Protein 1
Amino acid sequence: MKRKHHGLAPYRLADNPEEKRFAKKWQKHNDDGNTLAWLLDPERGNSWRPTEPSDRDVEVAATVMQWLGSPVGQGFLRDLGYERSEKQ
C-alpha cells in the first residue's frame, strides 16, 4: 500500500490550487520513487533499499512541500530567483 504524504494543513488544498499542485507532485514523487526515503537514507544511496521515514518525517516534508506552493512559499522561491512557468 502506498503511503500518504499529507502535511499539517490539508484543509488548505481546497482553496489553494498551487499548494494542491505542490502537494500532489510531492505525493507522486514518493509513489514513483520513494523520494523522501532516499533523501533521508543514512547510507546516502549506498543501500539497496533505504530505511522508511518515520510518520513525523513524512508529515514535516509534506508540510514544507505544500508550503512552497503557498503565497508565502512562492514569495520565498521568487526571492531565490525561481519563476513559475505558465506551462503546468
Note: Helices lie at 17-33, 35-39, 55-69, 71-79.
Protein 2
Amino acid sequence: MDKSKLMVFNDEIDFLFHTNIVEYDMVAASVSVCERYKLLPKEKIEWLKLLPKDRRTREMGMMQKDKEFSDKMISGLLETRDRFIEVNQIKDSDIISLHSDALFFVMKHEIENKVNNIEFKMKNQYCAYMKYDKHIEMFYTGESIDFKQVNKDLISQHALGINMYLNKIFEKIENYDETVVEYIAEMNSKYLQDKLPDFFYLPWGKLGKYKIDNLQLFSFLANVVIKELRSW
C-alpha cells in the first residue's frame, strides 16, 4: 500500500462485517506537527494552542498557503502517521483507509497512542464497512452509518430513503439475518416498478442521472450481500 499520500484507500477492501474497526485521529494535528518538527517559533505555537479550534484551523490554513511551510507540514504529518502504524505493528491488510491525520483500521491488539511525542486518540469504533465507487465510505456503528467522501447535503436528502435502506442491510448482515436477500430483492423490484416514494429516486452520493446511478448502487449492494452470505 502506497502511504505517501494524505488520502489512501485499501484497494483490497470493499466491505467488512463483524469486525472491530476503529478510527484514530492525531490530536491537534497541525499544531502538534509544528511543535514536534519545530516548524514555527515556540511563542507562535503556544498562541495557536490557546485559540478556539475553528480559529486555529483558519490560522493554520492561512499559513499553509506558503508552499514551503505546507510541504514541511505534510511531510511531518505523513512521517508521524507512518510511525504510528510502525509502532503499533498495523499490517497493510488491516488498514482500511488513511485520511490525512486520521487512520481507519481493524484493531487486533492494544494500541500505543503516543508516537513522536504526538498523541493519537480513538475517535470512533465500528463493526462493519462498505466502500462504493472506489471512494465513498460507509462505516456502521451498529446503529447508524458514518458516511465519508460524500457531500453532506446530498446525504441528508436521503435520510428517509436510501440511507435507511443501507442501514437495514448493515443491520441484517450484522445479525446474520438471511432474509436480507429477500429484502434487497423486494426493494429492487419495487424500485424498478416506481413503487417507492419519490425521494428514493434522487441520485445518491453524487449528482447523477435520474434512477440509473442508483441502480449501480443497488447492484453493488446485492453483490456485497451475496459474497458475505457465502462466508457464513
Note: The first helix runs from residue 29 to 36.
